[in-house]
Amino acid sequence: MRRDVALHCDILRNMPQHSIPKDEHGARRPRHEGRILDAVIDGLVEDGYQQLTVEGVAVRAGVHKATLYRWWTGKPALVAEALAQRMDTGPVPDTGTTRGDLIAWLRVTVANYTGTQAGVAMPALIGDLAVTSHGLQAFREAFLTERRAGCAQLVRRGMARGDLPVDTDVDLFLDALAGAVFYRQLVSGVPITADLPERIADLLLGSA
Amino acid sequence: MRRDVALHCDILRNMPQHSIPKDEHGARRPRHEGRILDAVIDGLVEDGYQQLTVEGVAVRAGVHKATLYRWWTGKPALVAEALAQRMDTGPVPDTGTTRGDLIAWLRVTVANYTGTQAGVAMPALIGDLAVTSHGLQAFREAFLTERRAGCAQLVRRGMARGDLPVDTDVDLFLDALAGAVFYRQLVSGVPITADLPERIADLLLGSA
Amino acid sequence: MRRDVALHCDILRNMPQHSIPKDEHGARRPRHEGRILDAVIDGLVEDGYQQLTVEGVAVRAGVHKATLYRWWTGKPALVAEALAQRMDTGPVPDTGTTRGDLIAWLRVTVANYTGTQAGVAMPALIGDLAVTSHGLQAFREAFLTERRAGCAQLVRRGMARGDLPVDTDVDLFLDALAGAVFYRQLVSGVPITADLPERIADLLLGSA
Amino acid sequence: MRRDVALHCDILRNMPQHSIPKDEHGARRPRHEGRILDAVIDGLVEDGYQQLTVEGVAVRAGVHKATLYRWWTGKPALVAEALAQRMDTGPVPDTGTTRGDLIAWLRVTVANYTGTQAGVAMPALIGDLAVTSHGLQAFREAFLTERRAGCAQLVRRGMARGDLPVDTDVDLFLDALAGAVFYRQLVSGVPITADLPERIADLLLGSA
DNA sequence: CCGTAAACGAGACGGTACGTCCAGTCTTATT
DNA sequence: AATAAGACTGGACGTACCGTCTCGTTTACGG
Fold it and tell me: CB-CB: which of D48, D51, D203 is closest to C172?
């Protein structure tokens, strides 16, 4: 009943008062889920993941702490769900060229990791989720799988076009693509400039 | 006096009893520094970064909690120093070929992130360090700069040899190199196999 | 509607299914009153008064918590009613001698306070009831008045017989009689032996 | 270290600032013990035992909740210690006559149970203490033993004087003595008048 | 060899948040 | 109607760890 990191892309929210909210499968949902997830996002933006507390979210959302624990197992689950719902995924880009597709895709990635609080929250969140073995895996499925599949599609299109070697290791390509952004933002700290997407695309297309 | 993330590659340790440990500049050092950093590492290995507590380290090291706070500002500083001392850096590889050098360097990187507890602790540690603006920067300088410089040297050698384009963005190349490993280990969760170093090298050398 | 500590010596219980239970005055009664009060008693016996919870009673009785709150004001009222129905009162003893009567009466008292869970539950129950001014009074009327009247009758018979002074303070006599048992059981903790009734009777009859 | 109901008649309190308070045996004591026990008593008087909360005591005493839990196991232990220190024991009365002694002793008893909040708190306290098997026993030893011994001395003196039968069951006598007051105050609810001590004395001396 | 300064051990303490429990109320649906 | 189902507010629980503090003791160096 209680979702650990059971993430839903729930669009049915802000229902008329006094009607029990349900998701698309008819399952019960927290009464004030919208307010709660908004509160999580707001807290992330203002204070960052570390400073975010369950009690703080409860206060901000005007909800009792116990209500949060009824529906989520704790801070990681709350944040994971909030991020999953708010993180921009967008459509798979189709610009006509492989380079253009990769650049478009990377732009969204860069925006997600830098523009929102998601990037800053991510390492700590992952650290928290990794405490339990299943936590991180569930998060990956809810959060990454879809987005990763979109990019894989894009890479295969490039292979078909002959822009990429036919034996390209797709998974590795994706890891290098996203990893370059992720690592720069979190670890190396090299400033992220507007032309980063193009530079990464060029590096990986071997046409730099 | 108190080092926040003032990391030293201290080789003077395990001194004869009853002599005050000093570093190479004659500065005083914590009496039981060796035991303490060992305790940190042990704690990391057994419980992970999240579960590690300053009190726990104190108990494990047979030292009073206040002693730790006298010398370090808290958990992140303790862990950062412990990792910096234990993380294997090694010499800059020189195998004769650029591909060989990259593979050798990546092997050490993979070993660091997977073999030790460092990789697992890293995201949470970074998350903690990122709370204070200077924390993360200090950690980078102590931890990354040297290692990164070694790899940069290796990349420039490749450019000189003509194995890499002359206008290669070195910083970006390093980010993609390490990022692919880091991202795979922490985010995507794709299993890390023995041939990963070769595959990454091939991908980035455009010869895949 | 809702009885606070409105205790009834209800003998209409375990009715045929699907007939609305009513008391002797035709008033409506909770549908599953029997199961509920049994659950209270069971809970008292197994866990004691402190550990008894309204939710626990609801679960045990297979009834919804709200149902309990519809008919009773809370735990004290529930327990008070359950005890009132189960506490053995018995007839006023008439053995022919005052000493015999007192002993017989004390035997029942001792049995009530030691054999059942009533004695153990009593102080905490009284503590809870005493929170509201009327709570304790209502409990006294339902629980004590009848039993006390029976004993008073017995004492007056003794005065008539000349076994007790004609100016005996009956209320005080009753308090000392029951108080000796109550105090020993709850406060002093001196073990209660089989001959306690005789000893108390002798003490108060002045023939010890 | 932590006293469950380890009660001390500690007179060493309100020490000069920054000196660690110790009891007569040199054992450590809570820094603000005086303020804390005062807060307990005040809370009892104003709200009664049931409404008293550990958090409330902490606030009232200007002390952190964790401090209370460091030194006491919970509410029962706190209240027990506070009552033990504040409950008037007084010297064993010696009026020259057994009747006078009993009356004097009963007056203090009545005052304790009615004048202070102790009497009102007592049943609920006992109920709480009785949850753990040792709790009640510890309380008895700290709280009752001394006072009871004083009265026993008084009863034996009466036996020596010939005012009481030589085979009087002292324990039972004490139970009846205190029980009459206790039971009236808590259970029967009969109003306690000024002449109650005399009446009880007369009843038990068989001279009523 | 002894006095001084520091590091250290011991542990109470205030503070913040945790995650849990139960009370008691409410809405909605069912019987 | 009375019940069932169960979400919800509210308040307290007892715990964990943080980082700071005082106080007394040890340690090792420098005169």
Answer: D203
The 8-class DSSP code of residue C28 comes to: B
Rounded to 10 degrees, the C-alpha dihedral A190/A195/A198/A204 comes to -10
pLDDT at position C2: 57
CA D162 to chain centre: 30
Q: Would you call C201 an interface residue with chain D, using a CB distance cutoff of 8 Å?
A: no
What is the average pLDDT across A86-109?
90
Which DSSP string do the residues of B55-89 spell out, in sequence order?
HHHHHHHT--HHHHHHHBSSHHHHHHHHHHHHS--
**Residues 6+ away with beta carbon under 8 Å from B157:** B98, B101
Query: C: neighbours with 3+ CB pairs under 8 Å?
Result: D
Instruction: Tell me the C-alpha distance between A173 and A151, whole Å.
Output: 10
Tokens 């985010």 found at: B187
Rounded mean pLDDT, D90-105: 93
* C-alpha span between A109 and B179 (Å, rounded): 14
CB contact under 8 A, B188 and A124: no
Q: Which residue of D has its CA nearest to C147?
A: D188
Question: How far apart (Å, rounded) are the C-alpha atoms in residues D89 and D145?
Answer: 11
Considering only CB atoms, D120 lies closest to which of C130, C144, C175, namely C130
Query: Which residues neighbour D6 within 8 Å (Cβ) at sequence distance 6 or greater?
Result: D81, D138, D142
pLDDT surpassing 50 at residue B18: no
Burial of D57 (0-12, 13-18, 19+ CB in 10 A): buried
Q: How far apart are CA B25 and CA B139, in angstroms?
A: 21
Judge contact between A108 and A90, C-beta under 8 A: yes
From CA D79, how far away is CA D139, in angstroms rounded?
10
Q: Which tokens go with B14?
A: 């395990």
Three-state SS at D207: coil
Specify whether the CB–CB gap between D164 and D158 falls below 8 A.
Answer: yes
Residues of A in contact with B114 (CB under 8 A): none
Among all chains, which residue has been given the structure tokens 């507390």? A53
Phi, psi of B23 (to 5 degrees): -85, -170
Structure tokens at C153: 């009758």
Q: What pLDDT sits at residue A64?
A: 97
- The answer, yes or no, to whether D and C have at least 3 beta-carbon pairs within 8 Å is yes
Report whether pLDDT(C6) > 60.
Answer: no
CB C112 within 8 A of CB C88: yes
Strand, helix or coil for residue B3: strand
Contact assessment for residue B208 and residue A165, using Cβ atoms and an 8 Å cutoff? yes
Distance separating alpha carbons of residues A34 and A87, to the nearest angstrom: 15
Q: Which chains touch B (3 or more CB pairs under 8 A)?
A: A
Spatial separation of the C-alpha atoms in residues D168 and D166, rounded to whole Å: 6
Chain A, nearest residue to B193 by Cα? A172
**Does residue C20 have a pLDDT over 60?**
no
- pLDDT tens figures, B148-169: 999 999 999 999 999 999 999 9
Place of tokens 């092997």: B107
- What's the whole-number average pLDDT of chain D? 84
Residue D170 makes CB contacts below 8 A (sequence gap 6+) with: D152, D155, D156
pLDDT at residue number C91 = 86
The CA distance from A106 to A205, in Å, is 14
SS3 assignment, position A132: coil
Contact between residue B18 and residue B153 where contact means Cβ atoms under 8 Å apart: no
The residues that bridge with A22 in the sheet, in sequence order, are: A28
Closest by CA to B125, choosing from B159, B78, B187, is B78
Q: Which two tokens stand for residue D106?
A: 């009963």
Q: In the predicted model, what is the mean pLDDT of residues D68-87?
A: 89
Using a 10 angstrom Cβ sphere, with 0-12 exposed, 13-18 middle and 19 or more buried, the burial of residue C55 is exposed
Using alpha carbons, list the distances in angstroms from residue B123 to A124, A207, C59.
Answer: 6, 32, 45
- Give the model confidence (pLDDT) of A24-81 as tens digits: 666 778 989 999 999 999 998 888 888 999 999 999 999 999 999 999 999 999 998 9
